[in-house]
Design a protein that fits this description.
The chain has eleven helices and no strands. It is mainly alpha-helical. The chain has a single domain, classed as Up-down Bundle (Four Helix Bundle (Hemerythrin (Met), subunit A)), CATH 1.20.120.
Amino acid sequence: MISSGSTHPEEDRSMEARDLFLSQHSIVHSAAVAGNAMSSAERVFGGLSDEQMRIRPREELNSLAWIMWHIARTEDIFVNLMLAGRPQVFDDAWGGRLRVARRDLGTGMKSPEVAELTRQVDLAALREYRDMVGRRTREIVGAFGPGDWGGEISASAVERAAAADAFGVVREMFLKVFPGRPRALALSGIALFHAAGHLGEAGTIRSAGGFGSGI
């Protein structure tokens, strides 16, 4: 009897994982990245003025501009430097275009630093940068084969990111906690769940600022 099942189960599982990731990834990025006009990113960041993007309703809250910068930098650093072993999107002269000198991902920033970045960042360039990061992630994951999902983050990959000043004040902590973590878990944790969590935070900021949750 001839089986109707696939003769390449590992390839099939890889394709399923890739398709699931890309579907979920489209939810946390703008429609320009993956064509999802109803994405969480569109609902949270869409239709806002520059002034609204820079508002911090209370000192303990971030701005929407800072959140967009932070999730873009985090995805760029982890997916490109640490998982794919390739240069960041940021390395292509984006620091000057964004008008942000710092190269880290922003974890551990103090309130005055958040305020300074919020004032300085070029918002049009920031939106373009985040879209570029999202497209690069989709390019990388879209080319994944069965062997790309397994394995762990190497110490050398984390050290490479640290040498690029990617971690800022949490450098020593990240050098300790990320080596040995599963690659697939880090990919989904950073590119999907980390972004989704901050988009939820962005909804809170919109509500506190008086211009709706966006959800």
